[in-house]
Amino acid sequence: MRLVVVGGVAAGLSAASRARRLDASLEILVLEKGSRIAYGACGLPYYIEGQAESLDQLTLHTPEFFRRERRIEVRTQTEVAAVRHAQRELQLVSGERIRYDKLVWAAGARPVHPSRPDDRTFVLRTDADAARLQAFLSERKPKTAAVVGGGYIGLEMVTALRARGLSVTLYEAKGHYLHRDDDWLTSRITGLLERCRVAVKLRTPVSSPAQMGEDVIIWAAGMQPNTALIADAGAATGRTGALQVTDRCETTLPGVWAAGDCAETNHLVSNRPVWLPLGATANKMGRVAGANAAGARERFPGIAGTSIVRVAGLGVAFTGLNSAQARLDGFRPASAVIDAQDRPRYFRGRKLQVELVADLGTRRLLGATIAGDEGVRGAINVAATALAARMTLDDFLSLDLAYTPPYAAATDPLLIAARQLARELR
Amino acid sequence: MRLVVVGGVAAGLSAASRARRLDASLEILVLEKGSRIAYGACGLPYYIEGQAESLDQLTLHTPEFFRRERRIEVRTQTEVAAVRHAQRELQLVSGERIRYDKLVWAAGARPVHPSRPDDRTFVLRTDADAARLQAFLSERKPKTAAVVGGGYIGLEMVTALRARGLSVTLYEAKGHYLHRDDDWLTSRITGLLERCRVAVKLRTPVSSPAQMGEDVIIWAAGMQPNTALIADAGAATGRTGALQVTDRCETTLPGVWAAGDCAETNHLVSNRPVWLPLGATANKMGRVAGANAAGARERFPGIAGTSIVRVAGLGVAFTGLNSAQARLDGFRPASAVIDAQDRPRYFRGRKLQVELVADLGTRRLLGATIAGDEGVRGAINVAATALAARMTLDDFLSLDLAYTPPYAAATDPLLIAARQLARELR
Fold it and tell me: Does B308 touch chain A (CB under 8 A)?
């Protein structure tokens, strides 16, 4: 029995590893288009920033590791040209044919490219993209940069390029960042960027580098799931454009599973399919896809929509729905935003801003947005856990959260926000 | 209608404040034995350590604040001598009688004192205790210290006294710290203390300072709930010695509520009454007691047993049950302990140790123990939230936790521990 996995980053290697653990006899082959596998693609902006000194620091494992330790064959620089599912066969760009019994599609996503790109315009998705940009920055020493797109990668790249001393202009077509139209958050991020002397141009769509005068341009204006080849073979895509999968990560083609940035997943709050390509989700979905491809029956219940990004030193995190999304999904949201010290002042407590959203009718917690320092990650994870458990605001108010002065405030900022929201729901 | 609250620290003032918010017409009187109210008693070791420069930094509010902002009368240095509940009357030590319609008992707990104490022996519970110890340390400049008791306060005081340059010996009657008999944790704390040149004497009971040669002695050998006066009036105490309360925080005396360190509460995992006197619980219980005393009907569902302490720079946190407690409470526990990086190495990731405990039969998550650095608080709070939601290990494995390199690892240490435990439960 032969399992072929297309894609050798987070989802693909999780799938292959899990399948091996559950079935020692399976033949497992991973095909990766690029030359490097198992690298932390989320770390690429930090390689440009200089936090990681080499791309090797982002790489967790080599093909040799998988061959030796897990008996998983990994072929890099191996690109699929077509899927012939009736024959259970992949055709490679090289012309070679690869037979499979079971297939995990973990081909990821690709950045949207500008029309008429030029040699000073870069996307940042793969290790090769990062290497090219790094070489350009070192050799050409650009003074001014444009970043197009105020999403995760755009904001990380603004931070990275400012850290390298470039003058940076951020262009974002919408009036907000990170697909979140919450005014307090937009103001906070804009204020922070402006204090870092970033020229911020919201509501400023740009379609081509040809319009732009900066020395280097980072195009971070969205992503698309890599679905064409498997969709041509008959796998259905959803409303989001990504692959439809069941809660067992199976596509509409029997014997083909999908995981990671090319696939939809269920949103635990709205209970609707969403496409949110993120590394941690890819790891978890990959495990489930690999387990089921190996004959187990495991479920991936979905995601809460948790994400976190560092923007010029500020941690910004989300989970669940904000008010606007909640309305679109048929809820009646109410929300409260608070500022609170995350630790006592005598332990250099920093301010945490917390917005909680709950449904007016059911009092169910729907989402959280948090901005601040170190405490952001822990707080958003608590909210994400509460969402997974479908907690009401009242459940949330009683949470037994840890307190000691060196690490926490006597009343956790999450609970202060929950109390404020409870008063508004009364 | 007059509400009297006995105790002016965490639980008492939370109760009074919440009652005021829900009933503007209530007459509210708070009686506090000490001279200072609303201070963060958990911060006292950090005042001794020098993190907080004065006791005023630990004080959140004055009696004047409550009088002016909340129309709550607060009398300090006012000690109750007897409760005459049939007459709805308190008798003070001064002889004065105070009438009440409703009573919230939030009299806290007191430290166990040694037999035959002397003038170099101190407990650390109140602001007055801290002031006396501070004066002794400054004036007498002791060189050697004994700390009796390896619980929260004992370990915090070991840290504080080492930071002040004293030679410290820690005496603990049991073979472990913090009431947790998990060997890996005991070894880690002992190793850490010994690297800080603390002389650690486990399994070494001491009953009196008379046996001891050190220049100053901190007696941190346990606490007792302040229940005698209200128990004399007929309120029942439980097996733990603290006051029995319903989930509405009402004692067995109608019209008398109790909250904070003098009261039992329900453990959400074992569903049994426990006595775990901690500040964050006092705040939450106080709010519910105050609300119900003001005529609302609110519930305090209980606690997960979450706590956190910093020992010589190491964060140690618990929630739920460890294996030994789980067995006592009738579960069949299985557990896994892992070490994992909490962030990528290129962001100076630190090691987090995580133990998860689950029930073999039901796969329900029962508890977590976590040791490490900044990430400990967030991680224990996630586990506490999962316990409140009665999650199984399988629910926990799918949690959508935040990842970005500056703040987190691609696979959260909690999920690594959960995967390890899942393999052991298979």
Answer: yes
